[in-house]
Every structure is written in structure tokens, then in C-alpha cells.
Design brief:
Shape: flat
Distance between the termini: 56 Å
Number of helices: 16
Order of helices and strands: HHEHEEHHEEHEHHHHHHHHHH
Radius of gyration: 27 Å
Length: 440
């Protein structure tokens, strides 16, 4: 028990821990999820101008919208993609542009050479506000209808549509080929194609969504989920700093050798340190979650609320990301005697955060570090992907425990004098010595 308190004391009084708490407070307050007092979820009223928008897998809507978008990008040879989560403008070479023309021809029935006549017809990357009309979507978003300026040279069509009789599965197969030509991560991939199926939410659907939030989330679940979405941005990367700092502190203070000689087992040392990190991180986070959630309780006087929702989401949603981040920090620090874990976890976090830009409505793929659900409502979307989320969270927790087991093995070998870690400085020094040896 003394060892556990000693580890907690090192963490609580460290600069990295204070930065973690400050980051969590800054993120949640700036994104307005620390105080929900003015954000009541209300029963929709009939006759409203709009109940919002939603994406649905409707072929009659998706096919013409996606095809026109692809043709417009083809015409200016500038395709938007997120190949590894980063925004990228892709310009295809002549051969790939011909292949894209063949795909468009197969989808529209228009000869490829006629479609290729449109290439270069746009003077800018499809973005011109001249003559555009600003239209409200009724849900806080606006669109600009811009006259099509990709118009034709040599009689190339300015608008295209799917040819009669094309099956939706065939259409998706051609779009997959287009996505591969672009390099992946485009709007035409199987994951994001549904984004072209944006349709208004009906009154009946809005009422059903409200009832689902009331009955399944009991309101508090919706607020806890949104709070978790934002705070996870900080908690999926900052624990690695805490773990690295705690591990290196003993080495800098020269305590490692003393610990190596004690009778306490390696498993107990590492497990105690890991448990202390998780406890010190999660207790204030759970407290913040309850402070946030409590601001919404007064909005629903007399209604049945789930007061355990903050705890459920912090332990089920947030904890696995904290576990993997801290485990990477402990393992790589013991393995290399360096803070390289910060770079490794930081790279994963950065790629995952950029990937989340296109999945903020609910991205629960198996290897996601930060599953997203950036909405106070849409309970049905969450429930539809709940199995994927559970699989993701279990995988992250499992990987974390495997890394901690590996950390125990490395730590034990170092105590026995059989292993001194793969220090980066040593590695570079060894490389230099070998080069000097060969030079001689």
C-alpha cells in the first residue's frame, strides 16, 4: 500500500498531471460541454421549419449526387481525399484520368472522349461565389448554390446522371474503383458514400428520436456521451506524458537501482504504477463528468434520469483510451530508457484525430483511438454502432494489458541484469562506432 501511495504522490505533484487537468478543463469549457444548463433536449413541435438533416442510404439520392460530384472533380482534375486522415488535394496523371473517364462513362453511358472534353473547363477548383445564392438548411448550416462553371469545351456535358438500369451495387463498385484511383479516403469510398444521402428529418422521425433519447438515454446519457467525446481528445494522448514522466523520474533520481534490489516483485511494481496512473487520471475526470452532467439535471425536473450515466461512459468509453496511452508510455520507456513513447502515441493520436474529422457523427472502427459521437442527440446512430464500439473498447483495453505484461517482463530482466534497455542514445552511439570502425 505504501508503494501505491508513493506512486500516486509522484503523479499528483507532477507538472504533466497538472497539464492534463488543465487541458481537460480547457477542452470541455471551450467546447461548452462543462455546462449544459442552456441546452435542453426538447420535444419537437409540429410545423417547425426544419428538424435537421440526416444521412440515409437511399440510392436514388446518393447516386446522382455522388456522380455529379465526381464529374465536377474530374473536370478540374482536383480530388479531395483524407488518405490517412490528413486533408489532401489529389491531381491524377493522364493515365489515371483516362481510367476515371472510363468509370464515368460506364456510370453515365456517355462516351469517355466526350467526358474528357470537360477536363480543364473550370477556371478554379470548383469554387466561385459569383452569382451564388445562400440558402439556409434550417439546422444552423448554410449552402451556396453556385452556377456550374465546369461547363463544356467541345460539347462536354455540364451535368451528368446515372444511366438507366444501373444497379446500386454496381454503382458502389465503380465508386470504389474511383476511390482507389484517388488513393483512398475520398468521399466515394464505401465508408463515406452515404454522406451524399443527406435528407431532411421529418417530424415523425424527430419525435421518435426524442423518445429514444428520453427512454434509452434518460437524457443524462446523451450529455455524458457528448462530454466523453470532447474530453477523450485530451485523455487519449496526455496519459502517455504522465507515464513517461513517472518512469523517468526514478531513473533521474537514481532510485531505479534501489528498487531493483528490493524483494517486491516486478509485477507488483509495474501493476502498482499503472494502477496509480489510471486512478489519478480517472478520478478527477469522473468528477468533471458529474459536474458537467449535473448542470442538465435541473432541465428535466420530474423525469426519470440515469444518474450513473457519467460513470458508465467514463469507464466504458474513456478508460480504455487512457489505458492504452499509459501502457504505451510505460512499455516504451522501460524498453528504451527514453521518452520515445510520447512521439509514438502523439503520432497515433494526430492521425486518429484527423481521421475523426470525417467520422465525428460516430466513428467506431476497430483500431480507433478516439471513437467519436459529436452530437447531443442521434441516439439511434449510437445504438446502431454499439457492437462496433464495444469491440473497439475491449480491443484497446486488451492491448493495454498485453503491453503491461510485456513491461513486467522487460522490468524483470533489467532487475536481473540481463537487459539494460534499447536506449536511443546507445543505438546512435553504436551506429557511429561501427561507421568509425569500418572507416578505419
Amino acid at each position: 500500500m505504501m508503494l501505491f501511495f508513493r506512486e500516486c504522490k509522484k503523479i499528483l505533484f507532477s507538472v504533466t498531471f497538472l497539464l492534463l487537468i488543465a487541458g481537460a478543463l480547457l477542452m470541455t469549457s471551450s467546447e461548452e460541454v462543462l455546462d449544459f444548463s442552456g441546452q435542453a433536449i426538447e420535444m419537437p413541435k409540429p410545423g417547425q421549419e426544419s428538424y435537421g438533416m440526416q444521412n440515409k442510404d437511399i440510392p436514388e439520392i446518393i447516386m446522382p449526387a455522388a456522380l455529379q460530384s465526381l464529374y465536377r472533380e474530374f473536370g478540374i482534375n482536383s480530388y479531395t481525399a483524407y488518405p490517412i486522415g490528413f486533408y489532401k488535394k489529389v491531381k491524377l496523371n493522364e493515365n489515371k484520368q483516362r481510367q476515371m473517364a472510363d468509370i464515368l462513362s460506364a456510370l453515365t453511358g456517355i462516351p469517355a472522349d466526350k467526358l474528357q472534353a470537360a477536363e480543364g473547363g473550370a477556371e478554379d477548383a470548383g469554387f466561385s461565389l459569383q452569382g451564388g445564392e445562400l440558402k439556409s438548411q434550417g439546422d444552423g448550416r448554410y449552402t451556396i448554390d453556385v452556377p456550374d462553371n465546369t461547363s463544356a469545351k467541345n460539347d462536354a456535358p455540364s451535368q451528368v446522371a446515372p444511366k438507366d438500369g444501373i444497379a446500386y451495387d454496381d454503382f458502389k463498385a465503380f465508386m470504389k474503383r474511383a476511390n482507389n484511383l484517388i488513393g483512398g479516403g475520398s468521399s466515394y469510398s464505401e465508408t463515406y458514400l452515404i454522406g451524399f444521402g443527406s435528407v431532411p428529418i421529418t417530424y415523425e422521425e424527430a419525435v421518435e428520436s426524442y423518445k429514444l433519447t428520453k427512454e434509452r438515454d434518460r437524457f443524462t446519457g446523451a450529455y455524458a456521451r457528448l462530454f466523453a467525446d470532447y474530453i477523450l481528445i485530451i485523455l487519449s494522448v496526455m496519459p502517455v506524458f504522465v507515464a513517461v514522466a513517472v518512469s523517468l523520474k526514478d531513473k533521474r533520481a537514481g532510485i531505479s537501482e534501489l528498487i531493483y534490489t528490493r524483494s517486491v516483485s516486478s509485477a507488483k511494481v509495474i501493476a502498482t504504477r499503472y494502477s496509480a496512473i489510471l486512478l489519478c487520471v480517472m478520478v478527477p475526470v469522473i468528477a468533471l463528468s458529474y459536474i458537467s452532467n449535473a448542470t442538465a439535471w435541473k432541465l428535466y425536473d420530474g423525469m426519470t434520469l440515469n444518474y450513473f450515466a457519467p460513470l458508465q461512459y467514463e469507464l466504458g468509453w474513456i478508460l480504455p483510451s487512457v489505458m492504452i496511452s499509459a501502457a504505451i508510455g510505460l512499455f516504451l520507456t522501460e524498453l528504451t530508457n527514453t521518452p520515445i513513447a510520447i512521439a509514438v502515441q502523439g503520432l497515433w493520436w494526430f492521425i486518429d484525430m484527423n481521421q475523426g474529422i470525417m467520422e465525428s457523427a460516430g466513428g467506431y472502427s476497430l483500431l480507433r483511438l478516439m471513437p467519436r459521437h459529436n452530437s447531443l442527440s442521434r441516439t439511434q446512430d449510437f445504438l446502431d454502432q454499439l457492437d462496433s464500439l464495444v469491440a473497439n473498447r475491449l480491443l484497446m483495453a486488451g492491448l493495454a494489458l498485453i503491453l503491461i505484461a510485456a513491461t513486467i517482463v522487460v522490468y524483470e530482466q533489467k532487475r536481473r541484469g540481463r537487459f539494460d534497455g534499447f536506449g536511443v542514445k546507445k543505438w546512435f552511439a553504436g551506429m557511429v562506432n561501427r561507421q568509425n570502425k569500418f572507416a578505419a
